[in-house]
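Morning. Coffee machine broken again, so started the prediction first thing and wrote up yesterday's gels while waiting. Chain of 220 residues, entered below exactly as on the submission form.
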Amino acid sequence: MNPQPLTRDILKIEAREFAIHLSQRQIPQLYGITDGKAVGTYVEHGFRDYLLTRYQMASGNSAHGIDFPELDIDLKVTSIKQPQSSCPYRSASQKVYGLGYSLLVFTYSKVDELDTSASTLIINHVLFIDAKRTADFQTTAALLGILERGGNHDDIVALLEERNLPLDEIGRDQLATRILRQPPVQGYLTMSNALQWRLQYGHAITQSAVLDSGVENLLV
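Came back before lunch.
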């Protein structure tokens, strides 16, 4: 019998189940490992293998740059000590309107057990951040404040320039025109200006406790 296709709702359920089971395991392969990328790769591959035994799913595509292109969802794994990761840069407008896809974020605490020479990964959060909430927190808050106060095109251009969005004069003018026509919604990521976005999840973790915020903690 062919496996059933993976859907967004199923992915959320399975992410919760995988996180619970992972938190209960001892993992000798990660004992003494301090490289967060190695830990993240272990969790990402483990979750993908877990899903492949149960569901029909497309492989992650480097052209899309995300792990579940058929669902428009990317998977991130990060230590709770400094919850952040990187993602491909597409355009400066992502800081205002979001990444264009949703995020599934595992945060973990790693404990090495000396007596067993194995690690335990405690999964603290499994966050689902809806695509519409993946813009930059400070930038969207400031823009919405300008719009609420009746600000105009020049006010928006000035803010975009002040915040050093990677845009030239024409790009700032075009983005300001779009913002007036299509106001953004409040985002909950912190996004650094770089040719590869650096995402921080502190605001998203806080918002996961707020009903209908667009950020869910699937472990709750």
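Strands lie at 4-5, 55-56, 73-79, 84-88, 102-113, 118-129, 190-191, 196-200, 215-217. Going to sketch it on the whiteboard this afternoon.
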